[in-house]
Design goal:
It is built from 6 helices and 5 strands, in the order βαβαβααβαβα. It is of the alpha/beta class. It has a single domain, classed as Rossmann fold (3-Layer(aba) Sandwich), CATH 3.40.50.
Length: 159
């Protein structure tokens, strides 16, 4: 049994997509490729979880009805919502669908994602992804700065 491995180098910017709608999937792939991301796609909920646990994705975009008929049945989104933050902090998670108003903070908060995007704005997807990633980086900047200092500074007290 031959397995194709897609290696991620230190300079790659990996992104993971979970879509059922082929048109939206192509639009998201094109947008992420334009932004220089290395794109992986998940075909099922299980495939998504395996991929997400193997690679530290910078961007994750999930369709609201990915392999589901309602938002409540989206097992991928439910799995992301229940993951500990330490497991998903590196990823900017974007939820795309018809029932959202683009960049509405309360809708994003309700779904435990960083941003929501309405499917009618797919033509702006590269700019919206850039904004979501930048907003998340700005939000977490202080956390990562303190974390880096804590790991880099040796403890010299009592020496």
């Amino acid at each position: 049994m031959a397995t194709n491995f897609d290696f991620i180098s230190a300079t790659d910017k990996p992104a993971l997509l979970a879509f059922s709608n082929p048109e939206w999937l192509e639009a998201a792939k094109t947008a992420l490729n334009t932004l220089g991301f290395k794109v992986h796609t998940a075909a099922t909920h299980g495939d998504f979880l395996i991929r997400f646990n193997q690679v530290r994705y910078q961007v994750v975009i999930v369709e609201e009805l990915f392999a589901a008929t309602t938002l409540a049945e989206n097992l991928t989104l439910r799995a992301l919502q229940t993951m500990p933050m330490s497991q998903r902090r590196q990823a900017t998670v974007i939820l795309l669908g018809d029932s959202f108003q683009t960049f509405t903070p309360m809708q994003a908060f309700q779904q435990s994602v960083h941003a929501v995007i309405n499917s009618s704005e797919l033509f702006l997807l590269p700019q919206l992804i850039e904004k979501a990633v930048a907003d998340n980086a700005l939000f977490l900047h202080s956390f990562f700065e303190v974390q880096a200092r804590a790991y880099a500074t040796p403890n010299t007290e009592g020496a």
